[in-house]
Amino acid sequence: MGKIMRSYRAFTTAGYRILALYLIPFGFLVLSVLLVFASVEREYVYFAEMLLLVFYLVCYEVIVDYWVFAGLLDRGGENLALFKTSTRGLAFLGRAVAGDCLRRFCWLMIYAGFMSAVTGEAYYFVAMLVAYVTVTGILNLTRHLQLLQLHILCMVAASIIFVTFAVFLKFLAEASGTWMLAAELVLFAFLAVAVSGLSVWHFLYCMGRKSDDQ
Q1: What does pLDDT average to over the chain?
Q2: Are 45 and 38 contacting, i.e. CB atoms less than 8 angstroms apart?
Q3: Which are the contacts of 199, defined by CB distance < 8 A and separation ≥ 6?
Q4: What's the pLDDT tens digit per position in 47-98?
Q5: SS3 38
Q6: How many Å from the N-terminal Cα to the C-terminal Cα in the chain?
Q7: Cβ neighbours for 118, distance < 8 A, ≥ 6 positions apart
Q8: Other CB atoms closer than 10 Å to residue 179's CB: what's the count?
Q9: Are 180 and 56 in contact (CB under 8 A)?
Q10: Are 114 and 29 in contact (CB under 8 A)?
Q11: pTM for this model (two decimals)
Q12: Per-residue model confidence as pLDDT tens digits over 148-202
């Protein structure tokens, strides 16, 4: 664990870490809490929360990932050529990607726990797992792209997928009861682990293939 986070910190800039780990998450959490205690009807609060989640969990994550990992898997690119010629370099990159997954997952679970404690709604854990799976999955595509415009298109697609699944699963859990909520938690927890492992494997496989081609 320590080696993974050291590689992640070494690979990212101080400005990125301040934004991704502190300022933006804290501001997002404050806005979410303020919405919960706003004197408006609950359905409007939920709608506003969904907009915030789309902005931070999808839009922000995709754009910030563009800052760090954009185009690294583009077969026509020459990014990180020195890393690709070294077994230790590839391992370092794999740990950096794993650290990015770990950072995202921990933050989302902290947010889910805090909001569940404030509102009494355990569904936040399902929503955050859906967000994690959606965003981490879409980043496997955007890391093959260098153009910001293509990242924005992927960002829109991921936003639609996240909102659709989050709303549908909330409706299903409310209609079916606690057992459905538990089933959703187990399913998306498994998918979160799977997509994390797949992301690291996919990154290392593509980087190794690029190295063999050169």
Answers
A1: 80
A2: yes
A3: 97, 101, 136, 137, 139, 140
A4: 666 677 777 778 888 887 887 776 677 655 555 555 555 556 677 888 888 9
A5: coil
A6: 32
A7: 33, 36
A8: 9
A9: no
A10: yes
A11: 0.85
A12: 788 888 888 888 888 888 888 888 988 888 899 999 999 999 999 999 999 999 8
Query: What angle separates helix 178-213 from helix 87-119, to the nearest 10 degrees?
Result: 160
Residue length of the chain: 214
Tokens for 189, please give them: 């927890």
Residue 120 corresponds to which tokens in the numbers above?
Answer: 């009494």
pLDDT tens for 22-38 read 888 888 888 777 777 76
Task: In whole angstroms, give the CA distance from residue 213 to residue 205.
Answer: 12
pLDDT over 80 at 142, yes or no: yes
Q: Which two tokens stand for residue 91?
A: 């391992």
